TrEMBL record:
<keyword id="KW-0274">FAD</keyword>
<dbReference type="GO" id="GO:0071949">
    <property type="term" value="F:FAD binding"/>
</dbReference>
<dbReference type="Pfam" id="PF08031">
    <property type="entry name" value="BBE"/>
</dbReference>
<dbReference type="InterPro" id="IPR036318">
    <property type="entry name" value="FAD-bd_PCMH-like_sf"/>
</dbReference>
<dbReference type="InterPro" id="IPR016166">
    <property type="entry name" value="FAD-bd_PCMH"/>
</dbReference>
<dbReference type="InterPro" id="IPR006094">
    <property type="entry name" value="Oxid_FAD_bind_N"/>
</dbReference>
<protein>
    <recommendedName>
        <fullName>FAD-binding PCMH-type domain-containing protein</fullName>
    </recommendedName>
</protein>
<dbReference type="InterPro" id="IPR050416">
    <property type="entry name" value="FAD-linked_Oxidoreductase"/>
</dbReference>
<feature type="domain" description="FAD-binding PCMH-type">
    <location>
        <begin position="10"/>
        <end position="181"/>
    </location>
</feature>
<keyword id="KW-0560">Oxidoreductase</keyword>
<dbReference type="Pfam" id="PF01565">
    <property type="entry name" value="FAD_binding_4"/>
</dbReference>
<dbReference type="InterPro" id="IPR012951">
    <property type="entry name" value="BBE"/>
</dbReference>
<comment type="similarity">
    <text>Belongs to the oxygen-dependent FAD-linked oxidoreductase family.</text>
</comment>
<keyword id="KW-0285">Flavoprotein</keyword>
<dbReference type="InterPro" id="IPR016169">
    <property type="entry name" value="FAD-bd_PCMH_sub2"/>
</dbReference>
<dbReference type="GO" id="GO:0016491">
    <property type="term" value="F:oxidoreductase activity"/>
</dbReference>
């Protein structure tokens, strides 16, 4: 179903679905919407979780999945991609030519959905965020006009769309940097630990992360989750360690964790096209299915793993699940990507404000779609977020736009430097004065 969204907590209401075959169809639809003042929303992979998406009422869904062509440029250094392309498609297409690029880590997410707000993934250490690789974009603006946005064409918007892009237009296609694949073999180690190992576990992760200088090509993804086979009452700690290299090259990275005594330890060596599935985030895996479950995320950007607060979060999570078994598919996520490529970019050069962060932490709630449970989710989510934030003494709350739940301040989403917000507000006034793009981390006046 075109109108089925990934999270049942997102309750966007569409009166009609338009499936554009070419960019001009998007423009014609938006001109119609503009003339009759009908709300509209671009939907690609439908993974957006912002609760403001539920404010679309009697709207037009512009389902852009057919704008999914990919064409590699003759020089092999870029590709023209449709606004409806997505991670698994791009990874597989480029692999056939020995190429790779920055994408989200999960196989199912779009290129532009994540990319307009950041785009975190496994090649971030090499090439930066998704938005760092956008050369230009063909965009339909709120009034239906079609423009090209780049360093030399509407450069003000080029700055703003790389970080706050959901606010300004629909990207129908974009030229995107691609690269020769730096490695052929990837190693993925999965380990499961009992909760009593928590302190030693995060000590090791802090050593590995080395305050933002985690080896290029290394991604660690940790979750607290329930695993009844290990314990019916206490969460386990799951580590996914993914490395661009062979098992022997990865051995010094994962050996200290093995010494800690996981209850489960398995590994595989795969080509890059197999990494997402090997990590449980491939298109065929549970997390990628449009579900009949509600999902809500409460994210916090961090510098290091705060061991004291992580123990508090573990206890809160355990209590929440034991008191509210409907939440037993929930997780606490700790995402640790390599950062060198992302940090090499001048923070002022794009609207993405959180380049100082090293880690993305989030309390991720999954539960049956009942209104009564939304209140419980928010109660635990906000509490967890305040604990995670307290683990970052002296730092403001930084929120990843693509995980935001819609109650955040503009500073939390787009940065605390006054010039950033002034610039974004001016852009909003110039390109979307009537707030037609206000359903995803909107820049309000
Ligand atoms: C299972 C899962 C895995 C995730 N993995 C990652 C990850 O690895 N890395 C990461 O950084 N984030 C990740 N995210 C967060 C992700 O960035 C956001 O959920 C993102 O909004 C998803 O984009 P989409 O195309 O899938 O969803 P959609 O709901 O289709 O789009 C999300 C928003 O982007 C807008 N949009 C989409 N395409 C365009 C376009 N071409 N032009 C203009 N606007 C557009 C939509 O209008 C909507 O407002 C993940 C989320 C989930 C639920």
């Amino acid at each position: 179903m075109f109108t089925t969204l990934w999270s049942a907590a997102v309750d966007a209401n569409f009166a009609v679905v338009v499936v554009p075959g070419i960019a001009e169809d998007v423009a014609a639809t938006m001109k119609y919407a503009d003339r009759y003042n009908v709300p509209f929303l671009a939907v690609n992979r439908a993974h957006g979780t912002a609760s403001a998406l539920s404010n679309v009422y009697n709207g037009i869904e512009i389902y852009i999945h057919a704008l999914n062509s990919i064409e590699i440029a003759e020089n092999g250094e870029s590709a023209l991609m449709g606004g409806g392309t997505y991670q698994d498609q791009v990874v597989n297409y480029l692999a056939a030519y020995g190429k790779v690029t920055s994408t989200g880590a999960c196989g199912c997410v779009g290129m532009m959905g994540p990319g307009l707000g950041g785009g975190f993934g496994r090649f971030q250490g090499y090439f930066g965020l998704v938005l760092d690789n956008i050369i230009d974009m063909n965009v339909v603006l709120a009034d239906g006009s079609m423009v090209t946005v780049s360093e030399s064409s509407k450069s003000d918007l080029y700055w703003g769309m790389r970080g706050a892009g959901h606010n300004f237009g629909i990207v129908t296609s974009f030229n995107y940097k691609i690269y020769d694949q730096p490695v052929v073999t990837w190693f993925v180690e999965t380990m499961i630990f009992t909760g009593d190992k928590l302190e030693k576990f995060f000590e090791l992760l802090n050593i590995l992360g080395a305050n933002g200088t985690q080896p290029v090509g290394l991604t660690t993804y940790t979750v607290f989750a329930m695993s009844p086979e290990v314990s019916p009452t206490e969460p386990v700690i799951v580590l996914l360690l993914e490395y661009a290299g062979t098992e022997s090259e990865a051995e010094p990275l994962y050996a200290p964790f093995l010494s800690l005594g996981p209850v489960v330890a398995t590994n595989v060596t795969v080509p890059y096209t197999g990494v997402a599935h090997a990590s449980g985030s491939g298109v065929e895996d549970f997390v990628c299915q449009n579900s009949d479950l509600s999902w809500k995320l409460y994210p916090v950007g961090a510098l290091v793993y705060n061991i004291t607060t992580n123990r508090q979060i573990y206890s809160l999570f355990s209590k929440m699940i034991n008191d509210n078994p409907e939440f037993n598919n929930s997780v606490v996520q700790f995402e640790g990507y390599s950062l060198q490529g992302m940090k090499a970019v001048d923070p002022a050069s794009t609207a993405y404000a959180h380049r100082a962060d090293n880690l993305l932490l989030s309390y991720a709630l999954v539960y049956p779609p009942k209104k009564s449970l939304d209140a419980i989710a928010n109660k635990y989510g906000y509490h967890a977020r305040s604990i995670l934030h307290a683990g970052e003494p002296g730092r403001p709350l930084n929120t990843y736009v693509n995980y935001a739940s819609s109650d955040e301040t503009l500073e939390e989403l787009y940065g605390y430097e006054p010039w950033r917000l002034a610039r974004l507000r001016a852009l909003k006034q110039k390109y979307d004065p009537q707030g037609k793009f206000d359903f995803y981390a909107p820049i309000n006046p």
